[in-house]
């Protein structure tokens, strides 16, 4: 048996993403069929249920729903159902449950309860045979394949793409903005090797990292903080750029490492002034994204430019590489973070 190399699974799964994206786009018709059923029910409100990395993907879908579909959207608090027994009237509501494993008991209960209360339920999972798929009325297969590393990489990004394809199809789109996403993902990974290595050198000995983004990039900042915390055991905290200036910026100084996710568009434009303030306070800023070259930062990790609503699918890729590199540089194994399991069961 071949001895496991620390981080080998995570590295391989990061590298698989361009091919996974291309395959998922080729299966757009399957997702469009689900979207057509959603259109037929004409929901007036959309709820998303998720945990962990999937919760960040759900937040991304919330932005897509509110901006592209012009529908109000919210994130479910599962404990209101599982612990407190809330049973709201969910007629004319679409509930999308996002779960890589499809096995968390609280998400199963939320989905079953919502269906009983009149919601149209859709499961977005990487496990087509999961119990969640049996509970929900319809399902979308993320199609990322088995993920061996505990830290989610390919399942997270593929979930983003699946959610985008679904929302885009609901609005009558053709998926044109992601037609070449596989090639762009390969360019993002190949083009970020050197700056990611430099970021690993800069961040190797830090203890505290602040991540930030605006708009569509906020979920990427949240996912970045989670990846750094679970693989490198850093004290990582994510803030919206808007919230950062409301108080937390007082804690920013020359000892603070700041990872800013900034892509071309309104969100990136809005973050620029925030980074001016942070950079002016002496923080060591690393900017990631298609607007990184314009950001006031000590180091920039650019990715190819896309429509702003698609950017999170690409901008997270070098962040995953950074988390992987930092974990190894700090003596850890990002495939098996201490105290974590692949499937977390909560209620």
From TrEMBL:
Q: What class of enzyme is it?
A: transferase
Region feature (Disordered): 328-347
EC number(s): the record gives 2.6.1.16
InterPro entries this protein is in? GlmS/AgaS_SIS, GlmS/FrlB_SIS, SIS_dom, SIS_dom_sf
Among the Pfam families in the record, one is: SIS
Q: Which residues form the SIS domain?
A: 34-176, 196-337
Please give the PROSITE patterns that the UniProt record associates with this protein: SIS
Molecular function (GO) terms for this protein are: carbohydrate derivative binding; glutamine-fructose-6-phosphate transaminase (isomerizing) activity
Q: Which GO terms describe its biological process?
A: carbohydrate derivative metabolic process
Q: Does the keyword Transferase apply?
A: yes
Q: What keywords appear on the UniProt entry?
A: Aminotransferase, Repeat, Transferase
- Is Transferase among this UniProt entry's keywords? yes
Identification of the protein by name? Glutamine--fructose-6-phosphate transaminase (Isomerizing)
């Amino acid at each position: 048996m071949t001895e496991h190399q620390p981080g080998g699974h995570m590295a391989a799964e990061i590298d698989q993403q361009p091919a996974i994206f291309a395959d998922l786009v080729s299966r757009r018709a399957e997702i469009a069929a689900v979207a057509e059923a959603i259109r037929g029910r004409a929901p007036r409100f959309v709820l998303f249920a998720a945990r962990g990395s999937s919760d960040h993907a759900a937040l991304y879908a919330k932005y897509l729903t509110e901006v592209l579909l012009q529908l109000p959207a919210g994130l479910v608090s599962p404990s209101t159902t599982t612990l407190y027994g809330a049973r709201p009237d969910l007629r004319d509501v679409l509930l999308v449950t996002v779960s890589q494993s499809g096995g968390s008991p609280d998400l199963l209960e939320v989905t079953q309860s919502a269906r009983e209360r009149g919601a149209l339920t859709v499961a977005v999972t990487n496990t087509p045979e999961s119990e969640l798929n049996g509970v929900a009325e319809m399902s979308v297969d993320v199609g990322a394949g088995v993920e061996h590393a505990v830290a989610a990489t390919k399942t997270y990004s593929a979930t983003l793409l699946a959610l985008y394809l679904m929302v885009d199809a609901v609005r009558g789109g053709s998926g044109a903005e992601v037609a070449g996403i596989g090639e762009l993902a390969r360019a993002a990974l190949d083009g970020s090797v050197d700056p990611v290595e430099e970021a690993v050198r800069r961040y190797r000995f830090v203890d505290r990292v602040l991540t930030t983004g605006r708009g569509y990039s906020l979920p990427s900042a949240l996912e970045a903080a989670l990846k750094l915390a679970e693989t490198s055991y850093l004290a990582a905290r994510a803030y919206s750029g808007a919230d950062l200036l409301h108080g937390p910026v007082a804690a920013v100084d020359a000892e603070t490492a700041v990872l800013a996710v900034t892509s071309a568009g309104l969100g990136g434009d809005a973050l620029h002034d925030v980074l001016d303030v942070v950079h002016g306070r002496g923080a060591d800023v690393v900017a990631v994204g298609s607007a990184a070259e314009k950001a006031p930062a000590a180091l920039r990790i650019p990715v190819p430019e896309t429509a702003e609503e698609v950017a999170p699918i690409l901008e997270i890729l070098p962040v995953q590489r950074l988390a992987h590199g930092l974990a190894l540089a700090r003596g850890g194994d990002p495939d098996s973070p201490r105290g974590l399991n692949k499937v977390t069961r909560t209620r």
